Amino acid sequence: AFQQFTGINTVMYYSPTIVKMAGFYSNRLALFLSMIVAGMNAAGTVLGIYLIDRAGRRKLALVSLAGVFISLCLLSGAFFFQSDGLSANPTMTSSGGWFAIIGLVLYIAFFAPGMGPVPWAVNSEIYPEKYRGTCGGISATVNWISNLIVSETFLSVVEAIGASGTFLLLAGIAVLALIFVAIFVPETKGLSFEQVERLWKARATDSSSHLQCLLEAGQEA
Hints:
mainly alpha; Growth Hormone, Chain: A; 2 domains; 9 helices; 80% helix
């Protein structure tokens, strides 16, 4: 759910709208910039496939979420700068628009290699074999329901609290996701399904020595 509630598909679905909200009213330019965003998402996902077994799932997710938070704050600041009319100077408004575009590009650059593939990879590894299919299906359902909620409410939320407030809200969710990953998500790089299952059992019984052995085995793999 955190994958969706940090706003990725909102950005993908509404990127032309976001570009126009940033002050770029040309349909051609808005479409061109949104195509760049989509291309970066594809390229970033390919990069994530390369990094996921090298950097590790947990580290990649943490770095990704930290970057997503910074990018969303930049987007929020850019729209705050524009919408509150801190300057009636068109040059300043244009600068705010470009800051929004930079924030959008950075958001994709950080999200795509980490929070794009990592949740799906971890989701396929963490469940006991007996329940893997069922739990995977439930997770996918939750993911797409979350996608529906975020995409359907985005414009309404923007209308209610403004673009700046909306992106700040998403930044807050990114912080919650960062805390969740830091506390609850184990590193599963290099571990077999059986080792991951033992890792969860070690966590449940607070067997720190066994847990450390499993983590070291994953790092050596």
